[in-house]
Design brief:
Helix content: 25-40%
Protein name: Putative ribulose-phosphate 3-epimerase
Structural class: alpha/beta
Order of helices and strands: EHEHEHEHEEHEHEHH
InterPro entries: Aldolase_TIM (IPR013785), Ribul_P_3_epim-like (IPR000056), RibuloseP-bd_barrel (IPR011060)
Cofactor: Fe(2+); Zn(2+); Mn(2+)
Organism: [Clostridium] asparagiforme DSM 15981
Strand content: 15-25%
Radius of gyration: 16 Å
Largest sheet: 8 strands, parallel
GO biological process, one term: carbohydrate derivative metabolic process
CATH topology: TIM Barrel
Amino acid sequence: MFLILPSLASSNLAALGEQAARVRSAGYLHLDIEDGNFSPGITFGPDTVKLLRDYTDAELDAHLMVTDPESYIEELRDYGVRSIAVHLESSRYPSRALNKICQAGMRPGLALNYKTPVAEAVPYADLAEYVLLLTNESDCAGIKFKPYSLDRVMELRRLAPAGCEIWVDGGVTPENLPLLAAAGADRAVMGRAVFSAADPAARIRELAALAAAAKEESHV
């Protein structure tokens, strides 16, 4: 199964609860937590995550683009987050952060910026249930997908343990989604392609089917 993770940061930020409800049937919701220091943007904090629970019972995953990721883990767990990805570039002790997520009862993930060599994730791949590869140079709306990301996905697929999932995030479109799936990705974070649709939940199903077909055909 290939999963599409709708990114709430690319929805109408003036109506977050309504936007979360629009994709409730998809079962998943991706949250970018940015502090304005590690990444240039500022998006959601833990308090916003807590309030979202009034609008959705979806499985939440958090992508921590912050300078002190370990300080967020327990609070996000208490607010119902099931998976957390911490950046290799922001964690002084990646192994400790990943273990802390696991000990808190959540799925640990390791995120890599586009310019970080994929091989740098390999020493931590046994501790991470998934690696989140940024497929553009900044996790901000409007930054285009980098085609070399396909090579990065294939490289990680070769190097990572068999049970480690590959998630992709950044500039993913209906056009490049099948290519990413065929290269070895297991989940894709998508924002505008989902929330711009009249029926976002139906759009997610269409995109997931498109990616699954490409993945099956490639035999990855």
